[in-house]
Design brief:
It is built from 21 helices and 22 strands. The chain is an alpha+beta fold. Among the domains are: 213 residues, D-amino Acid Aminotransferase, Chain A, domain 1, CATH 3.30.470.30; 147 residues, OB fold (Dihydrolipoamide Acetyltransferase, E2P). The structure holds adenosine-5'-triphosphate.
Length: 605
């Protein structure tokens, strides 16, 4: 029997009242079990605050103003008389959901099927063009007229993009595992998710065929594969000790592009699995020209090409290609070259588990390759595509030599790859090891932290309206953002103002479920923006929640500063994790121990 929207919203209300991840997963797991299979994917997307998997970008696209108009229209039709306008009441209640629930209180809904509501919301998102706003307002008003007060609360929050249940992907995976019998189900579910990035699809497959359904999943064009990531080490010797003779590539600082060709359509996905196809037409055309109607999924780094030098632009120039408007003009100014470094799928065959050097051989047979010896300077390929520069290191010193060469040429560092390593979707492990200049100097790599709040400026900063931000790392185990640093430097005045304007759009009236901290900033914001942060060291501190367990102190940063504005290519879930911070802290301790002077050499004051 079809599940009603009221039943679904009862579940959302329970989730809202829970703060622990385990209880949330349990509640979700029980609910997933009772749903009809056709309802499972929509329900999963709804809980994610979306209408489709995040890489398809399914939001209803309605502003607060339009939703207020829809509520106003529905109120008018019910004949309820208001003493204050919906706008004023919204200011007082601070939340669109509470407003809708308040205005429609006392009404009985019509027990509308959940799927019917979901389709109406999908239609709202699809409508565009002239007169579409009026139609959207009308359609949403009609929807409100059929809903109970509680369902109005959640539908209103959903359409303004503020459902905020604090249920992250990790919690949904736990819930799916719970439904499928518990902990042992988690690994196949995670593996399936890593191959398609679509938890709704996973839920449907589980409903159809249980765990066998997800075990049968293979890469398929159109579904981004969650990206393989690097571990870090601090020298050629450490790398060699870990993985022995290995392939070593230049680490390019551009956009990671995962290109999908289904033989007809070409799509590109970014590091955080957003579709970026329209931004990079030369890669789309290049793929068509090179692969024709072959099906493939491959990955590489796209870099701005500097025709004057025959080399690449720095990241600050390449990033100007990340735009939705005037793409054509900009691609004339800063054309892209793409250096392919991995292959995951070709003509129906899964290449993920093929040893790296065999994958590389295949890449070299598909894409134009030009090779350089260690001492030779790297130049850009003639056409759009080339392959990443690669050497084989049989000795630690070759790695260090190559590292010094690439730095001299202005690249970021190197990535060493295990020769027989598979492509481990969605995981950070020692199949790929990065070595950047920063770890050689101070060992502190930059961190990617999520902004969870901000402070009003004091003194000179008063006129900027912002003095510092509160940031958090991601605790994967808890599926929560845990505070690690208050940061008040690194940006220019105009960048601070821009940042404040961005943050103001996402201000919340209280600390969101997904955040853990004892510190209260002047304003909470949705944990949405990721900033790159440099610091002198990681220290232990009782102040922050990051890494705090039982009686143990947490971690904090000494002299943290932002390296620039928020990174568009990172999702909050891509932020540096607590485990990585623990690991960096350990490395820092080892380095300090190594560099400590023997006592007889301590300089006398
Ligand atoms: P960073 O913040 O250091 O760029 P990241 O968090 O995006 O790193 P990492 O796993 O640390 O991801 O590093 C891998 C990144 O390096 C990839 O996302 C890719 O964009 C980039 N890259 C550049 N050159 C290569 C290469 N030859 N092989 C693989 N990845 C490369």
């Amino acid at each position: 029997m079809a599940t009603s929207i009221d039943r679904v919203c009862d579940c959302l209300q329970v989730l809202d009242s829970l703060s622990g991840r385990i209880e949330m997963a349990q509640e979700l797991g029980i609910f997933l079990k009772i749903l009809d299979n056709s309802e499972r994917a929509p329900f999963v997307y709804l809980v994610q605050g979306q209408l489709a998997p995040p890489f398809r970008g399914g939001e209803t696209g309605m502003s607060t103003k339009l939703v207020l108009r829809a509520i106003g229209l529905a109120v008018e039709e019910t004949g309820i008389s208001l003493t204050v306008s919906p706008e004023k009441k919204l200011e007082e209640l601070g939340d669109m959901g509470n407003l809708a629930e308040h205005l429609f209180s006392g009404r009985h809904g019509k027990s509308v099927p959940f799927l019917e509501v979901f389709r109406t919301l999908e239609n709202l998102a699809l409508r565009g063009g002239e007169g579409s706003q009026e139609e959207k307002v009308r359609s949403l008003a009609n929807l409100f007229l059929s809903l109970s007060p509680l369902s109005s609360r959640y539908v209103a929050r959903f359409v303004v993009g503020k459902l905020r249940l604090g249920v992250g992907d990790a919690t949904i995976i736990d819930a799916l595992a719970q439904w499928q019998g518990g902990k042992t189900a988690k690994t196949p579910i995670e593996n399936g998710y890593n191959l398609c990035s679509d938890l709704g699809r996973i839920a449907t497959l589980l409903g159809e065929d249980g765990l066998e359904g997800v075990r049968k999943l293979r890469p398929s064009p159109g579904f981004p594969i969650r990206m393989a990531l690097c571990e870090r080490l601090s020298s050629g010797e450490e790398i060699f000790d870990k993985i022995g003779s290995c392939a070593v590539e230049s680490k390019y600082d551009g956009f990671r592009c995962q290109v999908h060709s289904d033989g007809n359509r070409v799509q590109i996905f970014s590091r955080n699995l957003e579709e970026t196809t329209l931004m990079f037409p030369e890669i789309v055309e290049g793929t068509r020209a090179l692969l024709g109607n072959r099906k493939a999924i491959f990955e590489g780094e796209a870099l701005g090409y500097n025709a004057e030098t025959g080399g690449y632009h720095p990241f600050q120039v390449t990033i100007t290609r990340k735009r939705k408007h005037n793409v054509k003009e900009k691609s004339g100014e800063v054309p892209l070259k793409m250096l392919v470094f991995d292959l995951m799928y070709l003509d129906g065959e899964n290449w993920l588990d093929v040893p790296f050097l065999d994958r590389r051989r295949k890449i070299e047979s598909l894409f134009p390759t030009h090779t350089f010896s260690v001492e030779e300077e790297e130049t850009a390929p003639v056409g759009v595509f080339g392959t990443s520069r690669l050497i084989i290191a049989e000795h630690p010193s070759t790695i260090d030599l190559f590292f010094d060469e690439v730095l001299e040429e202005g690249f970021e560092g190197i990535i060493a790859k295990r020769k027989e390593g598979t492509y481990t979707a969605g995981s950070r492990n020692f199949n790929w090891i990065k070595l950047k200049r920063s770890y050689k100097d101070t060992l502190s790599d930059t961190l990617d932290l999520v902004i969870i709040g901000f402070y009003r400026g004091k003194g000179q900063r008063t006129r900027l309206g912002i003095g510092a931000i509160l940031t958090a790392a991601y605790d994967k185990e808890l599926d929560r953002f845990v505070s690690i640093a208050r940061i008040g430097s690194g940006l220019t005045e105009s960048q601070w103002v821009e940042l404040r304007e961005m943050l103001e759009e996402t201000v919340l009236s209280e600390k969101p479920h997904s955040v853990l901290t004892d510190i209260a900033p002047d304003y909470w914001v949705e944990p949405k923006f990721v900033v790159q942060v440099r610091a002198d060291d990681i220290t232990r501190s009782p102040q922050h929640m990051c890494g705090r367990r039982d009686t143990k102190e947490g971690y904090a940063l000494r002299f943290p500063r932002m390296t620039g504005e928020p990174r568009a290519d990172k999702n909050p879930l891509d932020a540096t994790t607590v485990l990585e911070i623990e690991d960096l802290f350990q490395k820092q301790k080892n380095l300090l121990a190594r560099h400590r002077l023997p006592s007889d050499k301590v300089p006398k004051k």
